[in-house]
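Entry 14. Ran structure prediction on the chain below.
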Amino acid sequence: MSVGLGVSLTDAQWARIEPLLPDRTPKRGGRWRDHRKVIDAIAFKFQTGSQWVHLPEKYGNWRGVYNRLRMWAADGTWERVFTALMAQADADDDLCWAVSVDSTIVRAHQPAAGARKRGPRRASRLTASR
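Output, structure tokens:
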């Protein structure tokens, strides 16, 4: 797997995202590591499909990155960022909406899905005699 695959945020992208993120001083403990580096690490992980433990050292400890991802998911940070970026892009006419609606419902009968047709199997003689 190539380490050079990760793409960092541009300065313009960071300028849009930075004001939407929480303060870098958490409620407990010291200051968080730079949000931009953490977002780059998260992007690298999902772009490459690598495991968290294989995050390159330049991003710091993988546990810190993973915990920030989880914490921001739980407190609604990612949802707020996504909503604000979508609203900004829509206001700038920089968003192309494509909607696809499919009302098809396909169901297979249980036997077609591999279920047995005539009730459960009886125990074989070898199994029953033991």
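The helical segments are 11-17, 35-48, 62-74, 77-91, 125-129. Will compare against last week's run tomorrow.
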